[in-house]
Amino acid sequence: MLKKLVLFDIDGTLLTVSKINRKVLVDALTEVYGTPGSAETHNFCGKMDSVIIYEVLQSAGLGEGEIGEKFERVKACYIELFRQHARASDVCLMEGIGKLLHELSGRREVMVGLLTGNFEASGRHKLLLPEINHYFPFGAFADDAPSRNELPAVAVEKARQLTGKTFTEHDIIIIGDTEHDISCARVLNAKSIAVATGNFSTEELKKHHPHVLYENLGRTDVVVNEILYSSII
Q1: How many structural domains is the chain composed of?
Q2: Under DSSP, is residue 114 helix (H, G, I), strand (E, B) or coil?
Q3: Which single residue of 22, 52, 73, 210 has CA 20 to 30 Å from 3?
């Protein structure tokens, strides 16, 4: 019987991607808008792909309407370029992820999904390259809502559609490497598991008060126990 819904972020949590991700975004923006804006130096951490596109172009003086007119075109261009150029060697799984996903997949009481700022097509390609995409039957992506804090409700509804179960509050665990993942958990009063495998240190993450904080997800038995049995205090 299903008891827990576990939602993973992608970048910085499950894996890292080489500079190819930023490069193809720069190329797509340049092709469609004639400028990459601030994409070469902009901080992407924890932000939705859609938000990043608007932010980097607004920094170059483009208005919201002007960006919106070509948004679908630049999104499609970025996804296509990423699929063409990203290779398995560009992706590195974080410590313990393969073992953790394998362990969770064998637990009938656990439903695993994604909660990520990636567009679905490019996010899925990131997971396909290291062969972990099959662990995630559904997810909430940048395509699904205009802001990240709207994604938790999307994920819960998609899980309900797949399983018939409506997961609530302490049945839900959101795992991520930034303050934005912790905020998403707070939206649902869900458990947040923060992991310092991205660009945020444990000290920085601690300031945002996750329920649990790990250096990495390498201790599979500890993480699984936290997901299945530990309650929010």
Answers
A1: 2
A2: strand
A3: 210
Q: Are 60 and 35 in contact (CB under 8 A)?
A: yes
3-state secondary structure (DSSP) of residue 47:
coil
Own/partner pairs, 97-103, CB within 8 angstroms, 24+ separation: 97/14, 97/15, 97/132, 97/217, 98/132, 99/220, 100/217, 100/220, 100/223, 100/224, 101/132, 101/135, 103/220, 103/224
The answer to whether residues 8 and 24 belong to one domain is: no
pLDDT in tens, 22-34: 999 999 999 999 9
Angstrom distances, CA of residue 199 to CA of 9, 28, 149, 176, 177: 14, 25, 20, 11, 8
Q: Are residues 69 and 172 in the same domain?
A: no
Q: How do residues 191-213 score in pLDDT, each as one tens digit? A: 999 999 999 999 999 999 999 99
**Where among 46, 63, 85 does a domain terminate?**
85
Tokens of 179: 């303050």
Cβ atoms of residues 169 and 192 within 8 Å: no
Tokens, residue 129: 């390259």
